[in-house]
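Lab notebook, bench 4. Still working through the backlog of constructs that have no structural model yet. Next entry is a single chain of 173 residues. Request: give me the structure tokens for it.
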Amino acid sequence: MGPFLLRLFTSYHHKAFCDLSNNCLYSRPIVYIARSSQIMNDVIEQLQEMSETVPVPLELATFEQIVEVEEEILIPLPMELKEYLLYASDVICGSLEPVTASDPNSHTYLPEVAAYAWSIGLPREFIPICQQGDSFFFISQEGQIQLWQDDEIYEDDSWESFWDWAEDVWMRS
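Model written out:
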């Protein structure tokens, strides 16, 4: 886990990862964490194996940068999007470029991508995770990924989690 995960709180039913100021990254049922963590770890491992070497590599976001992004867009990021930004946002593979949070000058910087997506009609409650021209894959607060294109949400293009989308779409692009 990253350096910001300074304390792990565990109760009978929940885990929460918090910094020393008690700012918690997330709190989820233990069973959900075990299942989603294994999927996340497997997908991240595959992404890292597929990652292209580039002259100027991307950097992973820090906890502080994620908090800054949330403050800029005025919406909390779903847990799996935070996990991606912390552990896999430095991966370059395929033709898709998911959002990032470490470099405000990047064309994939989440607040800039979100501002554009919202300005052309993506409903404000959704957070874009990847831009393809004027189409966007987005995440809901519940963590579901869908495609928004031509002012329409495509119900048939839906994934239960960021990691399902990464495996089915990003890694195959």
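Notes after review: Residues 128 and 138 are 4 Å apart (CA to CA). Strands lie at 7-10, 14-18, 24-29, 127-132, 135-139, 145-149, 152-159. Flag for follow-up if needed.
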